[in-house]
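hey m, so remember when u said the tokens were messed up on ur end? i reran from scratch. heres the input so u can diff it against urs
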Amino acid sequence: MSGSRSVLVTGGGRGIGRAVALRFAEEGCRIFVGFFVNREAAEKTAAEIYHRGGTPYLLRGDLKDPAEISRMFEEIRGVTGRLDVLVNNAASGVLKPARSLLAKHWDWALNTNSRPLLLLAREATGLMGPGGRIISISSLGSQRVVPQYTAVGVSKAALEALTRYLAVEMAPEGITVNAVSAGAVETEVWRAFPEGAEILSAVRDRTPAGQLTSPEDVAEVVHFLASPEARMIQGQVIVVDGGYSLLA
């Protein structure tokens, strides 16, 4: 695997995105750490990328704004001239029951979690050749009902459907498009959930593997999907949850 690959990880400063960026750093990749608000976290991740042998670039942009996405790719084009791997990880949303959602909450979730894949993929393929890889991070809430998770869960379901459509369209160009659906991963996002710590403890107790999925567990699967060995995996959603979703 070439160590000179160029990789964009949206939401690369924290959590799963950070773990993914650091995994690619280990093979000496040029890594664009996408962020919007938290520059400090992105800078810390960039420093660790450098420490692990990668070459980091900070890339700020609001993924809800198509013009911002175009500008981001102009920056990538100016730095490397190409992109080999796109990891669509950034996500946001409002935690409310379905009947409490306003139109603005719905639009925020879909425009942050679903639409960017379409716009990012369109831009990325202009910089990708055969062997290009597009990988999104989804969640079990796309298929299962999680309390307060309506808008985010629906946006992740749309993300998975779009993954399949893009996969078929891009396969003739030698580009694969897949997603990784993570179980409950112990990141700071759980602080936003009422009783988040209690929920994580219950999930851990119920998981056949006996532990929560880590950001590094997810990163390893992302890294595999970006490898030449995964060239025939196309349009799939790989679940990484220690068996949690298998139980009735």
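this time it looks ok to me. The beta strands are 6-9, 30-35, 55-60, 85-88, 133-139, 176-182, 237-240. if urs says something different then somethings off w ur setup not the seq
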